[in-house]
Amino acid sequence: MTQTRPTPGRLAQVIATRGGLAPPEAPFVIEHREALYYMLCQAAELEHGIMCQYLFAAFSLKQSTDEGLTDAELAPVQKWRKQIFHIAAQEMLHLSLVQNMLTAIGGAPHLSRPNFPHPASHYPAGVHLALLPFGEQALRHFMFLERPEGMDIDDAEGMAAFGLAEPAAVVHAGDIVPRGQDFATVGHLYRSIEAGIAHLADKFGERWLFAGPPRAQATQQYFGWPELIAVTGAASAQRAIDEILEQGEGPRGHWRDAHFGQFVAMLDSYDELRRANPAFDPVRPVVAVNVRPGERDTKVPVVTDALTARVMDLFNVCYEILLLMLQRFFAHTEETDAQLKALADAGVALMVRAIEPLGDVVTTLPAGPEYPGRTAGPSFELFYETDCILPHRDAAWLLLAERLQQAADFCQQTCQRMPAHVADRLTAITASLDEIAGDLAAHLPVIRDRLRETPAPAEALPSLLDRAAEYFSRTNRGVTGKEAGPAPGLAALLRSAYQVLQTSQTDAALMTRIVDSVLRPLADALEVPAVQAPAAAIPASPTLWDVAVAATRLRAELGAAAPPGLVEAVAALQDLAVRRAPAGERGRRIADLADLQRGLPPAIVTAKNGPYLVSNVPVVRDHLGNRLTLPPQLALCRCGGSSSKPFCDGTHAGNGFSDDKDPNRVPDRRDTYAGQQLTVFDNRGICQHSGLCTDRVSAAFRAGAEPFVAPSGARLDEIMRAVRDCPSGALSLGFDGTEARDLVDWHGTREQAIEITKDGPYRVTGGIPLADAAGADVPRASGSSREHYALCRCGHSQNKPLCSGMHWYVDFRDPAPGPEPALFEWAGGLPGLTRMMRLLYEKHVPADDLLAPLFATMAAEYPRREAAVLAEAFGGPPADGTAALTRGFTDEQRARWVTLAARAADEAVLPAKPEFRAALTSYLEWSSRAGGTQPPRWDWGPTGPPALAPAQAPAGTGQPVTLPGPGQTMRFEAHIKPLFREHDRTSMSFAFDLWSRDDVQAHAAGILDRLRNGTMPCDGAWPPERIEVFQRWTESGFLP
Q1: DSSP labels for 756-796?
Q2: Fewer CB within 10 A of the terminal residue: the chain, N end or C end?
Q3: CA dist., res. 814 & res. 421, Å (int)
């Protein structure tokens, strides 16, 4: 069946039969690259401005029968709106193609333009851009702008008066400075650019002209448009220009399906409906107003309704962020393909989920009393150039995410002041902005941890306020200023925190934190009077900072007698007061709080069924070794469920967390392994299964073999280092029957510090006291160290508060990995790189005859200094003034050093992915040859970062393992292999392969024994039913 084209309207027929033809314009002169760049910038501004015009017209259309349209009228209006949005999207495509051409010739992206209405002198005579609501004037103006080259039609009535520009100066072939050129149509501009590209390519050669990187261009890979091509030469530039012109004015002579023809058809349809019903009005009463007065020679009306101005500002900020994202995309430096895709996706999401709905909202809001009955429209105002962000990736992305967060905050505040129907729209936009910021932040480590706290869902607020009122009511249960116990000061604090809550009901995140982490623990503390507490001096109308200061003073005065509930609340108040301070005040606030409680000794207290309450510990580091800047009072999550890990958010109070020890835990038994030179002591009950000993000295610490420790199986110095590095304190050593505890505990020289490990426990060093909620010393395992120990943070240890390795078994994950970690993260941060360098310089270099003399006098800190330099090169923190290390290698020494460094990386269990090892090896090769040169910033090589495939689940899909029933025949592939997870296999890979039937059969007795007593480095104790399955398989003939 043949498809017929719709009958053209009257206007289309007139244009087709009688449209005048103007003589074609001669291309203007483009004699050098700068002139071409100048005219491409003109084209970019024109495409950009035209796109804004179209969006304004689309936003002005009514969208429902509630606005006075009949069902029959609504259908064509919706069609027009959809068509105009599609045309505007194609203008965005044209703008992107122009940016590709700019990049191709070595130019920077150009996304700036003058604000509306444009100054009369900005474009050639007859070319004018202004924001017009949908209607005959707008459609005729759009047709005039999109008219095919050589077609002689007039602009809309009223628009010709803007053609006041002076004719452009004539450009001569010898000019060096580019000048604006007269062009009659968009087609004339592009045909001149086309001629200029051909002329320059012929004159100087394509290789000279197209000097920019194709990877810095927008393509279908990132934005999805098949027409979006990289410009790499004259032919691809020609295709880009043809695409722009064919979509705008149509293939030469065929304009019906192009933008020009679509506007002709819209005007025909509009006229037909107006003839049928003279009262037909599909347009909201929109007037083009700006939020701020114009700064140039144009006068523009200004919105006077304050709330409408806020929504217009929000629209303009979202529009500004979109341009900043595009600017960053086209001018990126270090971004990977995945990060470029994230930028592109964020830009598209911002258009669809924020800019479009905001444009719809603005056109329903009053412009102000000076414009009776009129509504505003989006003004597309720009307040500075779009190249305002730094060219450095981390800084640029941080600013983008920060600006999105500011927009979300502003939107949330605005919706509180709006009518319900508008507030609902703004609430959805707030959520979208938050989500876009989160998606963007997830792709870069530097901003991943700076996201806002998760706000409480709107439906939870009533119950949140009910709980707050219940906690507040406890301050009146017989509490007077004369009673003994801490109640008077606590009650005053609780009342003041409740006052802050009452003034914060537009901030769901703050409300949630105050109720769960301040009011709740204070209310609990009121129920347990203990010692006389001084009254708290708090202003009558306190701020969050006032309450934090008063709470800190009270906590400091009570000292060790402070109830755990007060300490938990102080930690939350300090955290909130610092996080929510202006950026320039945070350091001062931390210093002020530290001064208030400077008299408290460093200590860790385990709150009953609650968090670790950490006071005045001088150093807290994250899993990458970065020192965190924190207030002096902390509450660290212990249940594993906090959404703000590692910090407590009160989740433990509602998830049933118990800090009781498991009665079936591994027995507290210290084993003794006597050797020829030394004796090693080991208590499996507190081993955190980090694998540091088995990774470093596998010949002495033998996973999967009995006895576990072979004290004479390796060099004495290596065994000593492995024992001293044991983070849990399970290992110790002695000489001649006497334990060398002081040696194992580093002679008390280590800093008091807490390391928050990845997916594992808190590692404590420096002899920080550990007490329970009553202030008593926490009982330790037999023979364990007091200088260093590991505290559970997954919530599942069998030996709480100490880690028992159960984080492996429960698959605890924190922090969540980003979509694309940097090299520094892949290496495991400073801890991983330090481990590698210590292995290199403490183990391998001293044993190598070629290198040992060269490093015979190296300082004890040499490995850490080298790790710091490597960390900085891989994207970590600055090396604190550590200079690049000078080596005087011969060629033979250099080759040996690189080989041993790679071996140390293997033993330190640095990632084995080829992409990471390629980057590491290239650094080692460069470093071995560069002498004392400071290394540049390293990044992934040409292959990019490794693909982050999800870890293999035990049963293939992440579903729980189904155990075989009694009497069922068991086979390795179906029933045994799924019991061991990917990271179980990895942790045992130095000894055998847990996914190999032959390996598991050969070591079955040792595996079974260690599964029973919880000494497998991978898991801790297995549940009895899993052990029974494994045992049955060993007794049934090891079926494959």
Answers
A1: E-TTS-EEEES---EEETTSPBPP--TT--SS-EEE--SS-
A2: N
A3: 40
pLDDT at 157: 62
| Mean pLDDT to the nearest integer, 831-843 | 94
In degrees rounded to 5, what are phi and psi of residue 775?
90, 0
> Quick check: helix, strand or coil at residue 46?
helix
**Given a cut of 90, is residue 582 above it in pLDDT?**
no
Locate all alpha helices (DSSP H) within 442-531, ordered by sequence: 445-448, 461-473, 487-502, 508-514, 520-526
CB 608 within 8 A of CB 638: no
DSSP class per residue in 424-440: HHHHHHHHHHHHHHHHH
- The CATH architecture that domain 306-448 belongs to is Up-down Bundle (1.20)
Alpha-carbon radius of gyration of the chain: 35
pLDDT of residue 1019: 43
* Cα–Cα distance measured from residue 539 to residue 522, given in angstroms and rounded to the nearest whole number: 19
Asked if residue 1030 lies in contact with residue 979, where contact means CB atoms within 8 angstroms, the answer is yes
CB 109, CB 102: distance < 8 Å: yes
Q: Which residue has the tokens 């459609």?
A: 139
Asked if the model's pLDDT at residue 329 lies above 60, the reply is yes
Where in the chain are the domains?
A: 10-18+26-276, 306-448, 458-600, 670-786, 823-930, 972-1035
Q: Which of 131-140, 616-625, 960-969 has the lowest mean pLDDT?
A: 960-969
Asked, colleague to colleague, whether 10-18+26-276 and 823-930 share their fold, the answer is: no
Query: What angle separates helix 544-558 from helix 586-596, to the nearest 10 degrees?
Result: 30
| Whether residue 417 has pLDDT greater than 50 | yes
Q: Can you give the length of the chain in residues? A: 1040
Q: What is the mean pLDDT of residues 243-257?
A: 70
Q: Cα separation of 992 and 985, whole Å?
A: 8
Three-state secondary structure call for residue 734:
strand
pLDDT at position 184 is 64
Single pTM value for the model: 0.62
Q: Which CATH superfamily includes the segment(s) 823-930?
A: Globins (1.10.490.10)
Question: Residue 845's pLDDT is what?
Answer: 95
Q: What is the DSSP string of 74-126?
A: HHHHHHHHHHHHHHHHHHHHHHHHHHHHHHHTTPPP----PPSSPPTTSS-TT
Chain centroid to Cα 325, Å, comes to: 15
Torsion of CA 519, 522, 527, 531, to 10 degrees: -160
pLDDT class of 791 with cuts at 50, 70, 90: very high
pLDDT score of 331 more than 90? no
**Single-letter residue type at 60:** S
**Could you count the other beta carbons within 10 Å of the beta carbon of residue 296?**
13
Token pair in block for residue 487:
């109640």
547 near 503, Cβ under 8 Å? no
**What is the C-alpha separation between 237 and 197, in angstroms, rounded?**
8
Q: What is the CATH code for 10-18+26-276? A: 1.20.1260.10
Residue 674, φ and ψ in degrees, nearest 5 = -90, 135
Other CB atoms within 10 A of residue 727 CB: 24
Q: Which of 414, 400, 389 is nearest to 451 (CA)?
A: 400
Directed axis angle between helix 862-873 and helix 829-838, to 10°?
140
What are the structure tokens assigned to 778, written together? Answer: 């926490």
Cβ within 8 Å of residue 525, ≥6 positions away: 486, 490, 563, 564, 565, 566, 569
Distances 416 to 272, 413, 424, 505 between C-alpha atoms, Å: 44, 6, 10, 10
β pairing state of 633-636 and 670-674: unpaired
Can you read off the two tokens belonging to residue 251?
Answer: 């293939």
Cα–Cα distance for residue pair 914/984, rounded to 1 Å: 21
Count Cβ atoms below 10 Å from residue 22 Cβ, excluding itself.
13
Residue 817: strand, helix, or coil: coil
